């Protein structure tokens, strides 16, 4: 069965430090891959997506993610974190055998220290 | 452009009551879904639709009904509310599998 794992429930970084949030998936083929961000009390906003081509994708708010097929991973990165990046981040996968279902990870909550 | 609009934003129900969560989008998206979000569990798919007149079950459909009579609207009905349905509910829409979702701002439901 398809699954998505975000191994880090909470991550704390200092403002200006680099950030990497991990996402691993289980699926036989290359799925569609997404990262979303959720600020408190808000809905989810799409940060970036990958489904083919260049394995390093750029998104909004200065985020990027790299697809590594050999590791079944799609990690989210940002070179320098801002206090406004504090939020919860969700990895999602879709495109399973022609269905229109997406599976979300359980999320990583990011805290930024001033 | 309003995007995805969910109403109400907050609701308290008594056990056994029924209600409908409304969802409307103005982007002409074919794909719409309902998710529930619970602490530590991420988002779980309740029902989804790939177009008007077509709906299907997600991973947690029990206790919920949906219909899709128009492209714009995708209401979620709770048939007989239970405390286990206390959650935050999100409606989302998309052009297709590789576009990603646009989410509504959510409905926080408490069943007492």
Description:
The complex is a heterodimer of chains A (114) and B (112). In chain A, 0% of the residues lie in helices and 52% in strands. By secondary structure, chain A is mostly beta strands. In chain A, strands 2, 5, 6, 10, 11 and 12 form a 6-stranded mixed sheet that branches. Chain A is globular, with a radius of gyration of 14 Å. With 112 residues, chain B is mainly β. In chain B, strands 2, 4, 5, 6, 9, 10 and 11 form a 7-stranded mixed sheet that branches. The mean pLDDT of chain B is 94. The A-B interface holds A 9, 32, 34, 36, 42-46, 49, 51, 90, 92, 94-95, 100-107 and B 4, 31, 33, 35, 40-45, 48, 50, 58, 90, 92, 97-106.
Write the layout of secondary structure elements.
The complex is a heterodimer of chains A (114) and B (112).
Chain A: E1 3-5, E2 10-14, E3 19-21, E4 24-26, E5 32-38, E6 44-50, E7 56-58, E8 64-68, E9 73-78, E10 87-94, E11 102-104, E12 108-113
Parallel strand pairs in A: 2-12
Antiparallel strand pairs in A: 1-4, 3-9, 5-6, 5-10, 7-8, 8-9, 10-11, 10-12
Chain B: E1 4-7, E2 10-13, E3 19-25, E4 31-37, E5 43-51, E6 54-57, E7 64-66, E8 76-78, E9 87-94, E10 102-103, E11 107-111
Parallel strand pairs in B: 2-11
Antiparallel strand pairs in B: 1-3, 3-8, 4-5, 4-9, 5-6, 7-8, 9-10, 9-11
What labels would you give this structure?
heterodimer, A: 114 residues, mainly beta, 6-stranded mixed β-sheet, 4-stranded antiparallel β-sheet, 12 strands, B: 112 residues, 7-stranded mixed β-sheet, globular
Number of helices of chain B: 0
Instruction: Count up the helices of chain A.
Output: 0
Mean of pLDDT of chain B:
94
**Helix percentage range of chain B:** under 10%
Structural class computed from helices and strand pairing of chain A? mainly beta
Q: Note the beta-strand portion of chain B.
A: over 45%
Could you tell me the mean pLDDT of chain A?
Answer: 92
Write down the secondary-structure element order of chain A. Answer: EEEEEEEEEEEE
Outline of chain B: globular
Count of individual beta strands of chain B: 11
How far the N terminus sits from the C terminus of chain A, by CA atoms, comes to: 41 Å
Report on the biggest sheet of chain A: 6 strands, mixed
**Contiguous uncertain segments of 5+ residues of chain B:** none
- Kindly report the oligomeric state of this protein: heterodimer
Strand content of chain A: over 45%
Structural class of chain B: mainly beta
Number of strands of chain A: 12
The low-confidence parts of chain A are none
